[in-house]
């Protein structure tokens, strides 16, 4: 009798009630169920058997520990104890002398990297590789290429244009120098290897920078004594006398000029730089002219101290009713220029700015000149000397020269914030100031086509016509402030104020006798006037500038 497997009592009852004709179908269904059950058991059994020979590396498993024998485990415990002893003794600063010299340390197994998706079959002759999680002992910082250009974004050897406003090259601080207010440890920057100069100037574009400025400058000016007068007599003692030329400050108007700066970095870190500057201010002039059609009376005043005469104010008549007619002119000029070359060396850094110490060579030149010329024709029949129709030309010239050569030292600062930058310069030049005074005078008398020339004028006589040169110690203080706006790629538009001065400078007013004293005797035997002595003063030039600053 065949017994069919019945899943439960309900199916058993159904089986008993199934007609004999349908029992074959029921048997077939139960056979299929049994075959599937046997196949499932066989699969699980095969998987369990293969798990002993094939190992899968799962992402979430721990460090694999291979099975070891009792002897190996004992050796491992000895090695672990030795390592722990070495560690604690090294922390205490002791020398490890307790290690058994006969003990050998097992070499560390070599690691073989595997991916999570790989299955690794064991190699029977070789030990099972150990997988451990290692942490690098040090992290290598990204390096900056020496060819990188300051102010550019650099990725994998490619430049991707300029950074946003205010993101400038950190130069020395970011590369090798100490950060903080004092980027380099000393003025010589010994602690900053990247700041050491290369020792030569290279033509690489990223090492060069410069600026050009348009200057509008005012001079201190020069106050001249009375040179031309008018009035009833033109004498300075008369109340109605008016000074037409002189007795005022000249050379104080605004003049245009220019300034050029060219610089180069002496190292790739943009720490030290060499800068050359040259500037000049346009010539300032003073001009006056008049003749008898402008004023009936034109005279040149002076204080007469001639031998045998009573000292007092007198005049040289140029135009006077029924006496003479003529003209007079006064012309003057002033010029100033300078140049310097200096090494800028970093002193302090921080807060998006830097302070540099500068030292180098300073040059400055300042010149003034003045020419007074008068021409008068005698029309007085009652005067025999000069006779009627005689033409008398009197000329006085004054040239003051100042040339400075010396060293310079100072501080230069720069600060950047976004698209804006601020730069300042404070420095002193010190050295030799060479001064020269050139005075000449001539009197030309023409009578009936015949000329008589005397090398003396009115304010320049034989007593003061000799050239005078001297040399003294002088100072050239200078200050410059500028505000920059990063308006164009590689260019800043800047606006600022500039002041420069020269101590102990000679001007034309210091070459004229302050009392206008004149001894017209030839040769003078009494008071030696005009005097040869000169007077000096501090002059300065100041104003505003507008320009462009370029950096690669």
Question: What does this molecule look like?
Answer:
There is one protein chain. With 552 residues, the protein is mainly β. Helix content is 12%, strand content 45%. It has helices at 9-17, 23-50, 70-91, 171-175, and strands at residues 55-56, 119-120, 154-155, 158-159, 208-219, 222-224, 228-230, 242-245, 248-250, 254-265, 273-291, 298-304, 312-319, 324-350, 353-378, 391-417, 420-447, 450-454, 468-488, 491-506, 517-518, 536-551. The strands form six sheets. A ten-stranded antiparallel beta barrel has the order 5-10-11-14-15-16-17-19-20-22. It has a three-stranded mixed beta sheet with strand order 13-12-21, with no helix packed on it. A hairpin with a 7-residue loop joins β10 (254-265) and β11. The longest helix has 28 residues, at 23-50. It is elongated and about 170 Å long.
SSE inventory with pairings:
Elements: H1 9-17, H2 23-50, E1 55-56, H3 70-91, E2 119-120, E3 154-155, E4 158-159, H4 171-175, E5 208-219, E6 222-224, E7 228-230, E8 242-245, E9 248-250, E10 254-265, E11 273-291, E12 298-304, E13 312-319, E14 324-350, E15 353-378, E16 391-417, E17 420-447, E18 450-454, E19 468-488, E20 491-506, E21 517-518, E22 536-551
Parallel strand pairs: 12-21
Antiparallel strand pairs: 1-2, 3-4, 5-10, 5-22, 6-9, 7-8, 10-11, 11-14, 12-13, 14-15, 15-16, 16-17, 17-18, 17-19, 19-20, 20-22
